[in-house]
Amino acid sequence: MDETATLVDSYTEMTELLLPNDTNNLGRALGGVVLHWMDICGAIAAMRFSNRQCVTASMEHVDFISPIDIGEVVVVEAYVFNVGRTSIDVKVDVRAENPVEGEERPTTSSFFTFVALDDDGVPTEVPELVCPSEAEEALRQEAVDGRKEQLSELVDRLES
């Protein structure tokens, strides 16, 4: 495959308003709902990048670093930062925005891997990732470094 695609080609942003059906008894987002939104946003980024249907192959460690409260706007951002022959690595970040006060904070982040499928549902080759701008390359490098750091911390925990 001689095709290329850019990080910007994959960039996806979704917004949701946290309503009662998606909260726990404390009025905060259910973790499973947040993971669902992250999976959808990541899949859209992978599909935009590859122009193929994509399925989730894996999701790495997830830390819920800040709760999302009922009535807040949830922003989910995703972009492709690395590819294999048929696999697509996507960084997915979530932040909460208070629409009244205009404040925002990061809440969740993870790395997903998707596999592109052909029309018969068989894994198929994906474009090469190119980052023509300094901003794209910086985002890609941030994701690569973040994933390495996360994996290193996991190995350290397992060894102790």
Structure, described:
- It is a single chain.
- With 160 residues, this protein is α+β, with helices and mostly antiparallel strands.
- The strands form two sheets. Strands 2, 3, 4, 5, 6 and 7 form a six-stranded antiparallel sheet that branches. The protein has a two-stranded parallel ribbon with strand order 1-8.
- Strand 5 and strand 6 form a beta hairpin.
- The protein is globular.
- 29% of the residues are buried.
Show unreliable segments: none
Give helix % range. 25-40%
Characterize the largest beta sheet: strand count, sense, and whether it forms a barrel. 6 strands, antiparallel
In CATH terms, the superfamily is Hotdog Thioesterase
**Shape, per Cα inertia axes:** globular
InterPro entries: Cytosol_ACT, HOTDOG_ACOT, HotDog_dom_sf, Thioestr_dom
Enzyme class: hydrolase
Domain HotDog ACOT-type: 8-120
Keywords: Hydrolase
Main attributes of the structure:
Cytosol_ACT; single chain; Thiol Ester Dehydrase, Chain A; 8 strands; 160 residues; 6-stranded antiparallel β-sheet; two-stranded parallel sheet; alpha+beta; EC 3.1.2.20; 3 helices; Acyl-CoA thioesterase
Summarize the entry for a quick read.
The protein is α+β, with helices and mostly antiparallel strands and 160 residues long. It has helices at residues 7-10, 31-50, 134-159, and strands at 4-6, 12-17, 53-59, 63-64, 73-83, 87-97, 104-117, 128-130. The strands form 2 sheets. Strands 2, 3, 4, 5, 6 and 7 form a 6-stranded antiparallel β-sheet that branches.
